[in-house]
């Protein structure tokens, strides 16, 4: 199923970087973008690596350490909610992808991204539909981004108690909406999101 990397490797095109994000759809917390180069995308220890959304939080945490050990280079970019508001989610995401690739300590020969091509990157690149499901390096990047963001959101739960960030990680849930109704938005909410804006200066 994961043939794109195999074709590139068989053609002698290596190293390959995979890029993915976490937190695009959240209404609170940062957007995280990760770029990963694996020494061998088909190494046996990476056999369980898949899209971060398809595995449990415990599995992601375990695979995070496996990926770090198997990676030639990893770069993670944290984009705060204020910059997401300023730039817009898509523009902030593309900027983050570009920064993540250029932040790698090894220079990739090819870059594979989840869904979106990165314009002006300076490397050959391909946006892969559902890339986090069909490309090992993108799956690895999705896990790195997701685990890093989840850890940040657990810290934010301590800094901003009452919102339940450690549970919903800043995504829209009934519990999160209820907290917004009771407490109003906090500093890490994305004020450009309509569900957050609805509770700004709402009269009692």
SSE order in H/E notation?
Answer: HEEHEHHEEHHHHH
Beta-strand proportion: 15-25%
Question: Any idea what the radius of gyration is?
Answer: 18 Å
Number of self-contained structural domains: 1
Span between N and C termini? 55 Å
> What would CATH call the homologous superfamily?
Ribonuclease H-like superfamily/Ribonuclease H
CATH class: Alpha Beta
The parts where pLDDT drops under 50 for at least 5 residues are none
Shape: globular
Q: Characterize the main sheet.
A: 5 strands, mixed
Helix content: 40-55%
CATH topology: Nucleotidyltransferase, domain 5
Name the structural class. alpha/beta
CATH architecture identity = 2-Layer Sandwich
Number of helical runs?
9
Counted beta strands = 5
Major sheet: order of its strands? 3-2-1-4-5
Topology record:
Blueprint lengths: L3 H7 L5 E7 L8 E8 L18 H14 E9 L1 H7 L1 H14 L7 E5 L10 E4 L2 H4 L1 H24 L5 H4 L5 H10 L10 H4 L7
Parallel strand pairs: 1-4, 4-5
Antiparallel strand pairs: 1-2, 2-3
In short:
The chain has a single domain (4-161), classed as 2-Layer Sandwich (Nucleotidyltransferase, domain 5), CATH 3.30.420.10. The protein has nine helices and five strands, in the order H-E-E-H-E-H-H-E-E-H-H-H-H-H.
Written account of the structure:
The chain has helices at residues 4-10, 57-70, 81-87, 89-102, 131-134, 136-159, 165-168, 174-183, 194-197; strands spanning 16-22, 31-38, 71-79, 110-114, 125-128. The mean pLDDT is 93. Strands 3-2-1-4-5 form a five-stranded mixed sheet. The protein is α/β, with parallel strands linked by helices and 204 residues long. The chain is built from nine helices and five strands. It has one domain (4-161): Ribonuclease H-like superfamily/Ribonuclease H (Nucleotidyltransferase, domain 5), CATH 3.30.420.10. Helix 2 (57-70) packs across helix 6 (136-159) and helix 3 crosses helix 4 (89-102). It is 43% helix and 16% strand. The protein starts with a helix and ends in a 7-residue tail after the last helix.
């Amino acid at each position: 199923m994961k043939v794109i990397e195999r074709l590139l490797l068989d053609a002698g095109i290596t190293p390959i970087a995979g890029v993915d994000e976490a937190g695009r759809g959240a209404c609170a917390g940062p957007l995280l973008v990760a770029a990963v180069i694996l020494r061998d995308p088909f190494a046996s220890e990476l056999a369980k690596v898949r899209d971060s959304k398809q595995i449990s939080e415990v599995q992601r945490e375990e695979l995070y350490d496996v990926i770090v050990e198997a990676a030639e280079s990893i770069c993670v970019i944290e984009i705060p909610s204020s910059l997401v508001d300023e730039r817009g989610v898509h523009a902030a995401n593309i900027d983050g992808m570009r920064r993540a690739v250029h932040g790698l300590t090894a220079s990739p020969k090819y870059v594979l991204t989840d869904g979106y091509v990165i314009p002006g990157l300076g490397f050959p690149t391909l946006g892969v539909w559902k890339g986090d499901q069909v490309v090992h390096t993108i799956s690895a990047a999705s896990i790195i981004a997701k685990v890093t963001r989840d850890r940040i959101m657990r810290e934010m739960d301590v800094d901003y108690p009452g919102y339940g960030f450690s549970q919903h990680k800043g995504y829209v849930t009934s519990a999160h909406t209820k907290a917004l109704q009771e407490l109003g938005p906090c500093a890490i909410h994305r004020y450009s999101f309509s569900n957050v804006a609805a509770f700004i200066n709402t009269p009692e």
